[in-house]
Amino acid sequence: MLKEFTLNEGKAIINFSEKFCDTRQKLLNSYGFRRVVEVFIQKLKKDEQIVYNHYISAFNNDEEFGSSLIEVFKWLAVCNADEILNVNNKYKVYFDDRDSFIELIDSLFAFWRRLERFAVVQNRTVSEGLQNVRFTQSNTLFGELVMTTYRRTIETIKGSKQNVYREFIAGANAGLMISHINWNCPLEYNGLVNIPFTTKVIFTPPFITYTKCNKRDGIFHEHTNNPIENIVLNEDEWFLFPIWVGSMLTFVYFHTDYMDQGFGLANLFEIAQENDYTGKRPDIIYIFGYPDGYDEKRTFYYKDKKNGMLIGYANHCDEVDYFGYMKKMLLTLHNVKQMDEGCLPIHGAMVNIQLKNGTESNIIIMGDSGAGKSESLEAFRTLNETYIRHMRVIFDDMGFLKKEADGKIKAYGTEIGAFVRIDDLEPAYAYEQLDWGIYSNPDKVNARVTIPISTYEVISRGYPVDYFLYANNYTESAEKIHIYDNLDDAIKVFEQGARKAKGTTTETGLVTSYFANPFGPVQERPLAEKLVRQYFTEMRKEDVKIGEIYTELAVDGKTHEGPRQAAEELFKIINK
User: Fold this and answer.
1) Could you give the domains of the chain?
2) What totals of helices (H) and strands (E) does the chain contain, helices first?
């Protein structure tokens, strides 16, 4: 059972099922409010020494300072300042300079709002908590309570009403509903069964997070031993998201210290329905943030052949505090399993485009991180009025090719969302996504936004391929689209996987990765090489145009112009 309130690493988790505050009295008497005040005072002590010294001089220690501040909040809920001083003169330090006291309260409120705040509702609760209040209403009610308490306190100190009211997100940034549901758990994983499933998610965009790391490094390797066999997860410290990664049912367990990484899944993958996993066994299990005692990063996967599952593992360390380690491990696990089933993973983007002249084309642009996949999609969007009647994104980062029973090749997506690098996009793009986005380190290099771009029904439909293009981000070329006549030449370019690194990982300069996909094909290269030749041969028979698109994304001065020029030339070719 989750605790009533926890605050750690800048993340607050509020368990509405244990304690739901619906009055100012409950709020100010809660353990959560006391904990926030305690941590706030420690922050003052560290960062605002002058302010801290002014108030602590009236008390014996930090605990007495915190208790006094809470008591003043309680008095201000029912009395004015003069009445409080008449009751007890020990509160005089707060009212000698009321402007300074208001600044202190504003600082406390700002400290609260800077926290990443998650509310949790446990289904079928019978305790003192939420009970009959609907899940979608609970955070709104809580936010209104926090806001009115703050306003009441400020106005009582000032002795007058405010003239301007600003509506902040004063409650939780996000809410999760969790339920205990039985699944077909192998004996080796009994230590996971106490962790409840996340069945519903609610949040108020923009959701902004700051992580200790903002780049991903290296690839994930196969491990010879099962890293999670017989481990036991504590219900107070772990959450479980059941999601669909492509066609793979996946259970993602993440530690509460990495709530923002786990929560980002809500905008990137389809959350599975209860009947999808009740009494069933997943294709993939991923444990993210397990404290195994190692300070260095440990990320790898294991093939549980006995139970027909793939296991992903990332330990608890600062280096994995980046959404790339959540997303890319899941895609690696997905791709390895798809290759075992005869499918070919594609690291790239795919769109279904209907032009104004009635022509329809399905286009895949393949390339590793920073090659220009997402940027090309954005260039397509900006050309919408000129060429396009309708555009549907099938996948933004990863998909796979599958040979159907009738022998035809079709493409599928893995994600319903996109983890987009903001730096290389038009400035307006980030603002257009405010009502949808989960932002990561928005003021730093490699800033990202995770946004929904499609539906699971769309990415799972299966689409024939008309153009299969490799994204070349480093070569300046007057010819923006080149179609290969020789299949071996095309395979050589695609398998080399060359690109100029753009800062999305720790790599620099011109680098290569087999088939531009370090998330499966690199690890399973012999199988991948066989599948590449099979699928390229079949695509040539189906008259798929295989070639290169010169995005010039890494060429100085061409970050925005390059993808747009390439998109324009592609549309002209399709229009013929």
Assistant:
1) 5-172 (no CATH), 181-340 (3.40.449), 344-416+453-575 (3.90.228.20)
2) 19, 26
